[in-house]
Amino acid sequence: MLSCDDDRVLSFLLSLNPMEQVVTPHLEGLSIDKEGVMMLEKGLLHLDLQNIKYLTLQGFNDIHDSDAASVFDFFPKVPLPNLLMLVVVDSAFKEIFPSKMPEILHSQLLVRALELRNLHKLESIGLQHTWVASSNLASLKVEGCASLKYLFTSSAAKCLVQLQQLQVSNCEALESLMVDYQPHDDDHDVIIFKKLKKLSLSQIPKLESFYKGKSTLNFPSLKEVEVTECNRLEYLFTFSTAKCLQSLHEMKISKCESLETLVLATQEVDKSHEDLITFSDLENLSFSQLPKLESFYKGNSTLNFPSLKEVEVTECNRLEYMFTFSTAKSLHKLWYMKISKCESLKTVVLAEADEPHELTFSKLWKLSLSESPKLGSFFTGKSTLKFQAYLYIEISQCKIMKTFSHGDVEAPKLQMVKIDGASCWIDNVGKHIFCSCR
Q1: Where exactly are the structural domains of the chain?
Q2: Locate the Disease resistance protein At4g27190-like leucine-rich repeats domain: which residues (predicted)?
Q3: Is the dihedral of CA 253, 258, 259, 263 positive or negative?
């Protein structure tokens, strides 16, 4: 089988005598530039494209306003009935899919994967057009598209029922992932990304939110969220969206200068007295370099993390506490916690007025607290803390921390406490820990 997925193969084909016939009945992959397409149209290059599944278009940079603005305007005579993956790179196209289906296509396009890189003039992907059959799209990757302001309309989003992976990076003008196709008054409309598993957003300086419309977004299968360098983003999820994140497994957020909270509280939600958001499958949580982050949620609701295993938080300088007592009660599986360089952090677990008599950490074995100058204690309340697993505690450069907890601490399997580099083996990790080790 001949697969033209390498520039060297394409160069070889283009170097052949124009009169030579090249028959490739099993060709499935092709990387081609504008010159190659023109040779195909003029009959100077003979390739059987009926079985093409993977197509890369690159180097269409000399496109003027008078030329075709769409990818498919360059394929008036080239049928691609079996195309599954389309990659468009280093080109000046203004749109990928035009509003009208190209004449050469006799049925909907069945592309499963779409990758767009370094398309500096791209203004529209065009997934909303019916002939595109966006219901087949499983993977969408967009990188370096400086003129793109949104990815798809709300009408197109409703068709993305197979979308499993969405990755967007280095898009300077992007303000929102999705916009309403036309204004509507239905506040109860729900857009479900049924199969989306991975969402990755990076270096999108104008991104303010995933979606600015009135519809509710639902991600029932979302497992992994990674967001970095989105400096206008103030929150990640609305309350209604967060309630449906039942499959979320991992969340990494970093270098978002305006991010204030994980879940946005609304006046309507607080009035409805809904009091619980449960991230039932979330195991890994990492926050770093979020200078305005104040809390996970600012409203009256409680966040639960029953599956959370690892937490790492660093350089979140407005964060005054990690968990409320109510949230900490759900941390049954937490085994590793590291907090560092949080300038305003006063405590890890914040006491509440109606807290019960004890708080148990069943699995926690490693606790690391460092370079947090205002940290006064791990827990501000008087309830008994119970640590049931083998426990290692490391505390460094937390200079005003004089007590671990204001109540009793039971840690029968305590292995070691290290404070500012000095190791201690003691029976009680409570009020006298710092007197013993300093």
Answers
A1: 309-438
A2: 49-172, 243-343
A3: negative
